[in-house]
């Protein structure tokens, strides 16, 4: 009776949480009454089967089924053409629980935290209007490259999983503002993430990071960078692994460093493209360039003599690296302190 009274009152919100429900029957509710309902809350009940009756609510925009024992989401859910937000935290759902055409829905927010996902379902990666995706506290071991297809995504929460790496395709999420990857097993950050120009918050605490790519300093809008609980190295380290450059690269370096002109009328298009891809050596005392062969170099950016952030950058040759030193302010590593604004360093180091 309480259910029908709430509907008859015309409230757009139907809250049936904490009632120990094991099912929901709306078959005898009138069509006019069903059209009034826009939000349904069925949290903290005893549901083991998805209540398909909610699929009769044609104007439903928000559905919360958190803290039940659901294992399957039926095909009927795709009938909810106006559904924008689906929350089903703390159930027993996994990557096999969703119907084939789930990806055709018009969802803007999807929260499946605290379930049993080992991988992100392919249907999720087809939700073209999705702005917020939460899959924290699952059993994810990786992030598929197709995550880059969610080009409207503004918030991605994947904390509390077993993720070991980040695909560079994540950098395709040009609208992303909040990226939460804390409490995983991540060992490195792809430098391509510097393309996330809208990013405000990057949570990386409690991972296995020992350095960050120097490109992270170009995230000019970043307001918070959480790094606590990582084995960030506390001494100056250099990785001198170096593959000698090929004859193609040596020729390309000569052309670029001597500013020799090259035109499509002189060279094949693929060689012109290759020359255009040259990267300038970041050592301010070197005017060289590199293409594929470079020296990985971990250094520390210092702030106020108290905070040090290990950053990865790439040099054109071993000769560009100064001898190993216990002094974190050696000549070869001082350039970033003078070229990066102090306020940006402070945000990165203290965020």
Question: In a few lines, what is going on in this structure?
Answer:
This protein is of the alpha/beta class. The protein has 6 helices and 15 strands.
Explain this structure.
- With 351 residues, this protein is an alpha/beta fold.
- It has helices at residues 2-8, 31-36, 247-257, 269-276, 335-339, 342-350; strands at residues 13-15, 39-41, 62-64, 85-87, 109-111, 132-134, 155-157, 178-180, 201-203, 212-213, 224-226, 279-280, 289-290, 295-303, 307-315.
- It is built from six helices and 15 strands.
- The strands form three sheets. The protein has a ten-stranded parallel beta sheet with strand order 1-2-3-4-5-6-7-8-9-11.
- The longest helix is centred in the last third of the chain and has 11 residues, at 247-257.
* Dominant shape: elongated
Biggest sheet overview: 10 strands, parallel
The H-and-E topology, N to C, reads as HEHEEEEEEEEEEHHEEEEHH
Describe the strand arrangement of the main beta sheet, using strand numbers. 1-2-3-4-5-6-7-8-9-11
Structural class: alpha/beta
Task: Please specify the SSE layout and strand pairing.
Layout: H1 2-8, E1 13-15, H2 31-36, E2 39-41, E3 62-64, E4 85-87, E5 109-111, E6 132-134, E7 155-157, E8 178-180, E9 201-203, E10 212-213, E11 224-226, H3 247-257, H4 269-276, E12 279-280, E13 289-290, E14 295-303, E15 307-315, H5 335-339, H6 342-350
Parallel strand pairs: 1-2, 2-3, 3-4, 4-5, 5-6, 6-7, 7-8, 8-9, 9-11, 10-15
Antiparallel strand pairs: 12-13, 14-15
Q: What structural keywords apply?
A:
alpha/beta; three-stranded mixed β-sheet; 13% helix
């Amino acid at each position: 009776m309480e259910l029908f009274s709430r509907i008859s009152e015309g409230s757009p919100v139907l809250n049936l949480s904490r009632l120990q429900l094991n099912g929901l029957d709306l078959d005898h509710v009138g069509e006019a009454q069903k059209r009034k309902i826009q939000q349904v809350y069925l949290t903290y009940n005893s549901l083991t089967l998805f209540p398909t009756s909610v699929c009769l609510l044609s104007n439903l925009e928000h559905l919360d089924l958190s803290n039940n024992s659901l294992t399957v989401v039926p095909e009927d859910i795709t009938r909810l053409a106006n559904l924008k937000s689906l929350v089903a935290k703390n159930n027993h759902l996994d990557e096999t629980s969703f119907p084939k055409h789930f990806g055709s829905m018009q969802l803007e927010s999807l929260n499946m935290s605290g379930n049993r996902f080992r991988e992100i379902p392919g249907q999720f990666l087809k939700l073209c209007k999705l702005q917020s995706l939460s899959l924290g506290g699952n059993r994810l071991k990786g992030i598929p490259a197709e995550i880059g297809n969610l080009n409207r995504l503004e918030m991605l929460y994947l904390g509390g999983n077993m993720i070991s790496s980040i695909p560079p395709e994540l950098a395709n999420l040009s609208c992303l503002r909040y990226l939460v990857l804390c409490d995983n097993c991540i060992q490195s950050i792809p430098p391509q993430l510097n393309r996330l120009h809208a990013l405000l918050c990057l949570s990386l605490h409690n991972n296995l990071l020992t350095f960050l790519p120097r490109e992270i300093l170009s995230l000019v809008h970043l307001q918070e960078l959480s790094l606590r609980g990582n084995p960030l190295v506390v001494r100056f380290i250099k990785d001198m692994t170096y593959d000698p450059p090929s004859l193609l690269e040596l020729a390309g370096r000569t052309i670029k460093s001597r500013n020799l002109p090259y035109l499509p009328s002189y060279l094949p298009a693929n060689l012109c493209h290759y020359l255009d891809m040259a990267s300038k050596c970041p050592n301010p005392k070197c005017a060289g360039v590199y293409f594929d062969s470079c020296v990985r170099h971990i250094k520390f950016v210092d702030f106020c003599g108290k905070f040090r952030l290990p950053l990865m950058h790439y040099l054109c040759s071993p000769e560009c690296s100064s001898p190993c030193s216990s002094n974190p302010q050696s000549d070869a590593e001082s350039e970033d302190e003078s070229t990066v604004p102090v306020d940006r360093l402070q945000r990165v180091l203290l965020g």
